[in-house]
Design brief:
This protein is of the alpha+beta class and about 450 residues long. It is built from 13 helices and eleven strands. It has three domains: about 70 residues; about 100 residues, Beta-Lactamase (2-Layer Sandwich); about 150 residues, 2-Layer Sandwich (Heat Shock Protein 90).
């Protein structure tokens, strides 16, 4: 039952609070009505006499208290003059034969309890010249009597009209309470939403999670806790980077000494094998340092002529004898770190050359909010189940598992993805039309413009 109720609640916190408040209000009113119907004393459940019936009772009490018939006649005459709706009860007046409604029956019982058997209480069908609700009359022991016609009033809604009236009143009440509850709930939930957005955008190299200025103290404490966690993450990343960079850098010195000592080995075959291993180690250390350096956000984010940058990369590879062609607009400006973006595209082109013959570099400038660079090759591509794995550092697919000259160490795509994420963007891999692989690096323009500070 609890799971069903939780499933029926809306997803947003403000809507949940509003539904809970309205439901609690309806439930509280229902319980109150039930308790009153069960526990209320019987005398309080009875319908009180209407004003015109109360007036009739007061006049009748005054008449009964008159000491003489003459005084009684004088009181009656004065009452008839001062109360236009008061008339003498005709001698042949008979009580109404129709079944009285529940309120009329309650008032008849009230009058009978007050006067007892000395006065006959009657509910008439109508009085001459009077309409509306039924009048009440009292007949005294001497045969005289008085009848009081009710004041004209709008009859209460009955049947479907009453149900409609009740539904409208409940709807208005629920709307008013719902709007107030929604306003109050949004005041509580909005700081949480802003905090969630700040956490989603959090970058350990740039951002600080500040506590919201408004909202409950619990939300401020939560934001403060997130800020502390972000600071710890930043320190952890910095410590890890410094440690790995120091290890990679310090390895260069013993590798250099080993190369110098290897030159003294007389066996030419053995010397070449050792030197080749040392060169491989140098490349691995260089790749690790490059990953640590380019995997961090840079502060030099400026307006860059992206087509010129891409054309320069294509020309550099073409000068080395590779078929690398640029396709796209001649002019297109975007905010980015030019050095990092050149490194990212260069890595993509280098990978495409290793596994394909010709490479196409295309700039997609059609979206005003996002700019994208596609690097396409005609190689064997990457299977779908491998595309997420190749982003892991030092992971190499089956086609590049052997360590040989120019094969790489599985850091190229990791560096590209790190650069893309540093620009609030992403790197995606997909099949190229006609075979091959299409690697796309995209990043939002305005987001980088707003948050491009180091």
């Amino acid at each position: 039952m609890k799971r069903l109720l939780l499933r029926l609640l809306p997803a947003r916190a403000a809507a949940q609070i509003t539904v809970i408040v309205i439901g609690s209000l309806v439930l509280a009113n229902a319980v109150t009505i039930a308790v009153l119907l069960v526990l209320l004393p019987p005398e309080l459940k009875r319908v009180p006499n209407l004003p015109y019936v109360t007036e009739l009772v007061a006049i009748s009490r005054t008449i009964e208290a008159a000491p003489t018939p003459a005084a009684k006649a004088t009181i009656i005459d004065a009452a008839l003059v001062s109360h236009p709706r008061l008339t003498r009860l005709p001698p042949d007046a008979q009580p109404s034969l129709r079944d009285p409604s529940w309120p009329d029956r309650q008032m008849l019982d009230n009058l009978k309890d007050q006067f007892g058997s000395t006065v006959q209480v009657l509910m008439l069908d109508s009085l001459p010249g009077q309409g509306g609700p039924p009048p009440f009359a009292l007949r005294f022991a001497d045969g005289s009597g008085l009848a009081m016609a009710p004041e004209p009033r709008t009859p209460p809604p009955r049947g479907q009209a009453f149900i409609f009236y009740l539904a409208v009143m409940i709807a208005l009440l629920a709307s008013l309470v719902g709007l107030l509850s929604l306003w109050a709930a949004r005041a509580v939930a909005s700081p949480l939403s802003r905090l969630a957005e700040a956490v989603d955008r959090f970058d350990p190299d740039r951002d600080d999670i500040a506590a919201p200025e408004q909202g409950p103290i619990e939300v401020k404490r939560l934001a403060s806790a997130f800020g502390g966690m972000a600071a710890r993450i930043r320190r952890l990343v910095d410590d890890r980077t410094r440690m790995l960079a120091a290890v990679s850098h310090d390895l260069r010195t013993p590798i250099t000494r080993l190369r110098l000592r290897a030159d003294e080995i007389a066996d030419d075959k053995q010397r070449r094998a050792i030197v080749a291993d040392l060169v491989l180690m140098e490349r691995m250390v260089g790749g690790a340092l490059s990953y640590l350096r380019d995997g961090r956000a840079s502060g030099s984010i400026v307006a860059t002529d992206v087509p010129a940058l891409l054309q320069t990369i294509c020309d550099d590879f073409a000068d080395l004898g590779h078929i690398v062609v640029y396709e796209g607009p001649i002019r297109a400006s975007a905010l980015c770190d030019a050095d990092q973006m050149m490194r990212a595209v260069t890595n993509l082109v280098d990978n495409a050359i290793k596994f394909g013959g010709s490479v196409l570099v295309r700039l997609d400038d059609s979206d005003s909010a996002v700019i994208a660079v596609d690097v396409e090759d005609d190689g064997p591509g990457i299977p779908p189940d491998e595309r997420e794995k190749v982003f892991a550092p030092f992971y190499r697919s089956d086609l590049a598992r052997t360590l040989k000259q120019g094969s790489g160490f599985g850091l190229g795509l990791s560096i590209v993805r790190a650069i893309a994420e540093a620009h609030r963007g992403e790197l995606t891999l997909a099949d190229r039309d006609g075979g091959g692989l299409r690697a796309r690096i995209s990043w939002p323009r305005r987001l980088v413009a707003e948050r491009g500070r180091p």
